[in-house]
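Form 12-C: Joint structure prediction
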Amino acid sequence: MSILVNEDTRVVVQGLGRAGLFHAEQCIRFGTDIVAGVHPGRGGQTALGFPIFDSLREAAAHARPNASVIFVPAAGAGDAILEAVESEVPLIVCITEGIPVRDMVRVAAAMRCSGSRLVGPNCPGVITPGKCKLGIMPGQIHEPGRVGVVSRSGTLTYEAVGQLSALGIGQSTCIGIGGDPIIGTSFIDVLEMFNLDPGTDGVIMIGEIGGSAEEEAAEFVKGQFNKPIAGFIAGATAPPGRRMGHAGAIISGGKGTASEKQAAMKAAGIAVAPTPAELATTLAQLL
Amino acid sequence: MKLHEYQAKDLLRAYGVPTPRGTVATTPGQAREAAARLGGKVVVKAQIHAGGRGKGGGVKLAGDADEAEAHAARILGMCLVTHQTGPEGRLVRRVLVEEQLPIEREIYLGVTLDRALARPVFMASAQGGMEIEEVAAENPEAILREPVGWAGLQPFQARRLAFGLGIRGDALKASVQAILAVARAYEENDASLVEVNPFVLTSDGRAVALDAKTDIDDSAMFRHPDLAELRDLDEEEPLETDAINHGLNYIKLDGNVGCMVNGAGLAMATMDIIQYAGGMPANFLDVGGGADSDQIKNGFRIILSDSNVKAILINIFGGILKVDVLAEGIVAAARELAIGVPLVLRLEGTNVEKGRQILAASGLDFIVAADMKDAARHAVARAV
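Section 2 - Result
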């Protein structure tokens, strides 16, 4: 079992520029079923064996995708998400980094009255090892198994997965929720799904400085989460007021510090890894 | 991107927010002329991208043009130190010379993103002049909040704020209009913060933005070429600007272990593990997902231009960025730049074996670590 994506996931790729094409090919090699692409102006062509359409509505009518992955550049990515929402694609994964916040405020408003789920933006995507890869993560480091990984950061997710696989611990599903201030899917959303997934026995949750998503997740874990969970917060040494790469990773007004988040996690019974080199071993002790 | 106070006021004025009459001066003589034109009684304000200017001695009242000139002579060219500049301070290149106003009340107005609500929130407080963080910490109910919906801040919300602040009489209508204008300026300019602190009510019934602070969302600059022209490179750390121009994300810190990492989260985690190993990171540097050998070279150059750096830790988890390509870049950069400090490498991911062979075959003196913790220990031990 797994969450969000599996062998029945039928994917439409939005944005087939250099990055979109490259990653679409990588996904296909991993075994992902890509059924269509959308690239305005290239309707009627094919790429990597799948048909391209000018609009998502046409792609949806012809290929009946149940998930979308977006590589459209930042200036148009908000629009691409809204296009997928309009076509009622159930799962929308947006990889694009640097979408203006104002655009994401509008997207968030549209998501509230929609049945679609957005993962990201500014994220590596979602992968269920052995079944489906919807994103840009290196597929070969993953092993099928029973541990879920959820993270705000891309390469730090790979770090956790690499450590797990090295210990012989496979993963059920790994999700990068994204490093932006406004994202579609929160830690809590993912933890709720892992909680209900019979194929997930434990979870690694990786947060970072900025905002209060980790504190809210810790509050949820305290009350309702019933599986072992290990955590880590990146940015303990980050200075206040400086944005550390991710638009959302900033300590402002004394809020969003690593120590507050670690304290909240510990209070919720989450095993906090002392260093990022001990993500997998910290969880392994609980399994 | 941050705007200067005078630029933020120009912007707000264009939306109909009243501001004091004033002029920017770059010399004491200009400040004198400006003061004379404004009737002599003025305030001289240092223009730097940092708050707390008053406490640092960067804001002075003058009774006449002579005094304004003397204040400007002292402030221009000073290294103004505030709680936001760090101990080295910031060189003052301009002052804003403004009329003094008969202030009756000081109010705080601000708009920023509420991440939990995923929409902007307009904040107002009767405790103007104070840092909003202090008010929020000590007396959170003193801050009035109105979430901004998709149709923008509505007049009834602006009225609710103004009544909540106890504004009555002539100032009410002017305040409501100013609140709506501030919200519009935030929205239409892709701001991440607009703050008017203080917004003052005067004894002659006016409502005026006495100070203004505006930050623009960097991701939205492509929509605002006019605002891009307001960028002041003098206010930015030259190395950070240099890094951005090469597709890198660099922030200088105070330690002596330089680091080069792919991905923001892993870069922060690397800084953390350096500290855990007993050292201090010299920088944050994210080379991104698709770094090429040119970027690696520029990364080294930027890290090494900080003379505090005594060792460099490279931590790469190759996904899309292949480790062998990266290793070639490192070898080329090491040959070309004559890096004079120990290099500790921790490489993992796609084509890692090929990458390690390239490093070994280069004959250069790299320390190849087994994992992140090992890498941090080596780097800290050698950073002396």
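Section 3 - Comments
DSSP finds 13 helices and 18 strands in chain B. Chain B has a mean pLDDT of 92.
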